[in-house]
Amino acid sequence: MVTLSLQCAIVGEAGDSFEVAIDDAKKVCKLKEAIKKMNMYQFPANEMQLFLAKRKNGTWLPDDKALDAMLQSEVDTSLFKKMRGSWRLHKKKLFGPGVALGEDVVHVLVVVPVETESRPTKRQKPSLGTTQYLPEIQWSDAEQRPRLQVQDGDQLISMPASCIKGTGVGINRSPLVLFRRKELIDEWNTVNHNSITSDSILWICGPPGAGKSYSTRFCLLARSVRLGRALDSLREK
């Protein structure tokens, strides 16, 4: 047996092609199962259709921008050979001896069934019922970190290695230097004055990727620090 590295592309979906490694003695139906598992599809594998991504002149489809455009349009599958589930992958008309797989090309076009409300076609995010394959998390107590002293006008902030230990940031246990833009300082001071210290409601709006979630976390953290200081002062009294 020979292990084939087949580059596959899904018709109708934006995204890069993906590789499936499979023995050439396997049947096409096993390739369908491998594609389903890799993409976490929820439909039966036999409802998937596979087509050999070869042109009429016998060359493979290049994996390029033209392919991206083709995949997101109406693809005429009649132009490509349908791969039957009972066929072995080492079949001469598929990937048998003497067939060169080439480089930077796609070998298989994948057509998935039409999505319905009762049974979604698209890959699903892991849920409580599908997390058995996720690694177990080892929780530990939070380690104390030195408190940074930052002035309002400081644009360069040096964080000691002990501050970033275990975060995956920093190299060779060296300090991490952060740069703060003046606009960011002004924005934070405005939020702090108009919402955090005044206990006013704050609406954070913006397009995806603008930083709404992180801004909310910082606001909540600042409020919790302020509340903690107030409680400490009450305890001292």
UniProtKB/TrEMBL annotation:
What superkingdom does the record give? Answer: Eukaryota
Secreted among keywords: yes
Crinkler effector protein N-terminal domain residues are: 4-111
Q: Does the keyword Protein biosynthesis apply?
A: no
Originating species: Phytophthora rubi
Q: Where in the cell is it found?
A: Host cell; Secreted
Keyword tags: Secreted
Q: Provide GO CC annotations from the record.
A: extracellular region; host cell
Instruction: From the Swiss-Prot or TrEMBL record, give the protein name.
Output: Crinkler effector protein N-terminal domain-containing protein
